[in-house]
Design goal:
mainly alpha, 2 helices
């Protein structure tokens, strides 16, 4: 199921995803700890993996968008150049 009518910059999604990879790697010693003080069965790593999975899916949904924006931009440039001739 996609996210309708939300304008997401693909570069921002990719940047956030790489940040999460770095955070996951830097917090390795906390992975098996409970995510909260209630000693939930859900671990810190479970939470990190959920966010990473979400961002990876969002990145897949937006990866074609960056190309479409570039094509639209180049088309407009070509039109402007043609009008100047």
């Amino acid at each position: 199921m996609g996210i309708a009518n939300i304008d997401v910059d693909p570069n921002d999604v990719t940047s956030a995803l790489f940040d999460m990879y770095d955070i996951r790697d830097r917090t390795r010693r906390l992975w098996n700890h409970s995510k909260d003080e209630d000693n939930s069965d859900i671990t810190v790593k479970d939470c990190l993996d959920d966010v990473i999975y979400f961002l990876e899916d969002l990145e897949k949904q937006t990866e074609g968008k960056g190309k479409a924006i570039a094509v639209e931009f180049l088309t407009k440039i070509s039109q402007l150049e043609a009008e100047e001739e």
